[in-house]
């Protein structure tokens, strides 16, 4: 995040952090004490991830933070704040252009153990006294329900000491069949988000089943277009517990990732049903269970009654098929980008690709490389950035330090600070990519840089797309090897292709609609009905609490949860979602956000 670190005067920095943590712990023990107010800078932010509030929320402004701490500290009983010796030592950093002392710490609450980060800056109005600019408190584990890792790992005595009993394979087959039981947690979707939450639940002894309509684990990546690789680097993309081998390529090919998913499911002992469609369900408020229907490709159905359904189907699941005048009269093939497979099938043909996000550009380049004549059609301004180095600037922190530390740093960034950081990244990207961007403008390509210049990351977090990491297609557009047209210049479609407003015909054998997907709320309405969709409300994008709406946390619908995002987002946030699921099952947490509001 264009954030720099500087390890100097380590003893002095540790002393400053220790002093702040000690004063903070003392003030929290008596939260009405005036001392608490002296610890926070007027322009400060507190992000709490379950630890004190049992919510994922960001509170901004010293007065608002004090009110929130007063509201939660008495119940949560946070204590034991201390610099964590197993993490990076306190250091001077620059985050979003602000110089600060950054310290990682550990602490406990009445029900769990947590980690946090405090960033201290001087308060010019108080003799430059070091005060908290940002504070993160995040729950790591629940007391009495720790993950079965390391020395707490399962011993395997059930099958290693009883030679006449079932062995490990027998037990795994029986567990995955669900012949005589239902799962506690049913995860819909077996991509990175589904695998991450299922693996986390497994370590917390939550009986969990993934269902996915694809025929093979990993097909959600394997069946995408032929040339696809990940657009961010390998060190960012590990799944929980099981990092990629150190000899893996920087940019992982789709089939290699798909095969890893199969290995991961086997190694992590995840229960996974392929060729299974989640057809929908209803919730029984009295029993606290769902009644869901699963359809297998062999024609059979199964009704299950899980206590929780986690939708892990991606940021969006239903293809967006815009009503384009005359498209139904086109005599050639029309495919949504989700249906596109391999450009070799269109060698020597003419193709129009509508949409200029990542999928549109990649498909256009794949078709061109396979020998098709390609026209890329732009519907709206698009953010373009070179895959190296510009697109990787957001992940610079992951080039040093440990994965756990970097994940905690990513978790610690409040929304307003993250936006400022990404504005700086976008400005730097524009400088690095100036030649490319100037060439695209000369071709008539319409560029944008996100809302208030916050760049591609926030385009993803607010709308799920609208940008392209250039791996060569933009260069082909600039050179004219891939043609460019504006959608606004098309009058309509006819049997032979696109009729331009100029009267010219743009002939085509194939039209690819790289037009994105509908939001998840449409999928909720389809699967669970209007009442549930209306109760849950919007999903994704940022809400009033400065967090993604209805993501990784309880919703107003009991027993319905959502997880989506990149491999990194899935790895990080699956931890907190699994902790909430366990807390609900342990009776520590109400089943819905609505129930919390009623209780408070």
- Count of individual beta strands: 28
Return residue spans where pLDDT drops below 50 for at least 5 consecutive residues: 4-8, 595-600
Helix content: 25-40%
Oligomer: single chain
User: What's the overall average pLDDT, rounded?
Assistant: 93
Q: What's the shape?
A: globular
Structural class: alpha/beta
Number of helices: 17
End-to-end span in angstroms? Answer: 37 Å
Provide a brief overview of the structure.
With 600 residues, the chain is an alpha/beta fold.
Give keywords:
single chain; 600 residues; alpha/beta; eight-stranded mixed β-sheet; five-stranded parallel β-sheet; 17 helices; 31% helix; globular
What is the topology?
Layout: E1 4-6, H1 10-29, E2 40-49, E3 56-60, H2 62-76, E4 79-83, E5 91-95, E6 98-108, E7 112-123, E8 129-142, H3 157-160, H4 168-177, E9 185-188, H5 192-203, E10 208-211, H6 219-222, H7 254-267, E11 271-273, E12 276-284, E13 289-296, E14 301-304, E15 308-311, E16 316-319, E17 333-336, E18 350-354, H8 358-369, E19 373-378, E20 383-386, H9 403-412, H10 415-432, H11 434-442, H12 455-463, E21 467-470, H13 473-479, E22 483-486, E23 490-494, E24 497-500, E25 505-507, E26 510-513, E27 517-519, H14 520-528, H15 530-536, E28 560-562, H16 567-585, H17 593-599
Parallel strand pairs: 2-8, 9-10, 9-15, 10-11, 15-28, 17-26, 18-19, 18-26, 19-22, 20-21
Antiparallel strand pairs: 1-5, 2-3, 4-6, 5-6, 6-7, 7-8, 12-13, 13-14, 16-27, 23-24, 24-25
Helix pairs in contact: 5-16, 10-12, 11-13, 14-15
């Amino acid at each position: 995040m264009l954030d720099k670190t500087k390890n100097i005067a380590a003893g002095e920095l540790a002393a400053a952090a220790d002093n702040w943590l000690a004063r903070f712990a003392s003030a929290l023990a008596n939260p009405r004490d005036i001392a608490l107010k002296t610890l926070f800078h007027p322009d400060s932010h507190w992000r709490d991830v379950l630890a004190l509030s049992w919510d994922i929320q960001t509170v901004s402004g010293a007065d608002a933070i004090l009110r929130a701490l007063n509201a939660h500290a008495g119940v949560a009983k946070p204590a034991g704040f201390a610099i964590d010796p197993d993490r990076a030592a306190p250091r001077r950093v620059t985050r979003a252009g602000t110089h600060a002392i950054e310290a990682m710490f550990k602490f406990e609450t009445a029900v769990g153990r947590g980690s946090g980060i405090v960033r201290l800056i001087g308060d010019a109005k108080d003799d430059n006294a070091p005060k908290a600019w940002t504070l993160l408190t995040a729950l790591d584990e629940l007391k009495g329900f720790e993950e079965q890792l390391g020395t707490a790992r399962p011993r395997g005595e059930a099958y290693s000491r009883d030679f006449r009993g079932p062995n490990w394979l027998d037990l795994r087959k029986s567990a995955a069949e669900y012949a005589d039981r239902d799962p506690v947690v049913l995860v819909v979707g077996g991509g990175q988000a589904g695998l991450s939450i299922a693996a986390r639940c497994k370590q917390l002894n939550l009986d969990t089943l993934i269902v996915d309509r694809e025929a093979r684990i990993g097909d959600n990546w394997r069946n995408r277009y032929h040339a696809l690789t990940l657009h961010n680097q390998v060190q960012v993309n590990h799944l929980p517990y099981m990092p990629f081998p150190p000899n893996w390529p920087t940019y992982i090919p789709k089939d290699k990732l798909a095969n890893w998913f199969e290995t991961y499911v086997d190694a992590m002992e995840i229960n996974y049903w392929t060729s299974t469609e989640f057809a929908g369900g209803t919730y029984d408020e009295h029993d606290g269970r769902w009644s869901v229907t699963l359809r297998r490709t062999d024609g059979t159905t199964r009704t299950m009654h899980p206590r929780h359904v986690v939708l892990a189907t991606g940021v969006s699941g239903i293809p967006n098929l815009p009503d384009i005048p005359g498209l139904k009269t086109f005599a050639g093939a029309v495919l949504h980008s989700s249906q596109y497979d391999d450009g070799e099938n269109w060698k020597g043909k003419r193709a129009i690709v509508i949409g200029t996000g990542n999928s549109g550009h990649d498909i256009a380049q794949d078709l061109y490389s396979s020998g098709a004549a390609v026209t890329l059609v732009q519907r709206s301004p698009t953010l373009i950035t070179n895959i190296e180095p510009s697109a990787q600037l957001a992940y610079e922190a992951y080039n040093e330090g440990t994965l756990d530390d970097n994940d905690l740093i990513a978790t610690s960034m409040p929304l307003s600070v993250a936006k400022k950081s990404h504005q700086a990244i976008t400005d730097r990207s524009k400088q690095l990519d100036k030649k490319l961007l100037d060439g695209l403008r000369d071709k008539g390509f319409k560029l944008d840089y996100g809302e208030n210049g916050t760049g591609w990351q926030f385009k993803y977090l607010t709308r799920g797309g609208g940008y392209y990491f250039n791996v060569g297609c933009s260069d082909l557009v600039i050179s004219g090897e891939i043609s460019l047209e504006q959608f606004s210049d098309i009058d309509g479609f006819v049997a032979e292709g696109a009729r331009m407003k100029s009267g010219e015909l743009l002939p085509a054998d194939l039209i690819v609609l790289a037009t994105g997907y509908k939001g998840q709320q449409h999928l909720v309405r389809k699967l669970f009905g209007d009442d549930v969709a209306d109760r849950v409300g919007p999903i994704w994008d940022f809400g009033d609490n400065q967090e993604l709406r209805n993501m990784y946390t309880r919703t107003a619908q009991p027993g319905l949860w959502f997880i989506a995002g990149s491999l990194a987002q899935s790895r990080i946030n699956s931890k907190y979602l699994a902790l909430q699921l366990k807390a609900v099952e342990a009776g520590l947490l109400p089943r819905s956000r609505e129930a919390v509001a009623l209780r408070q």
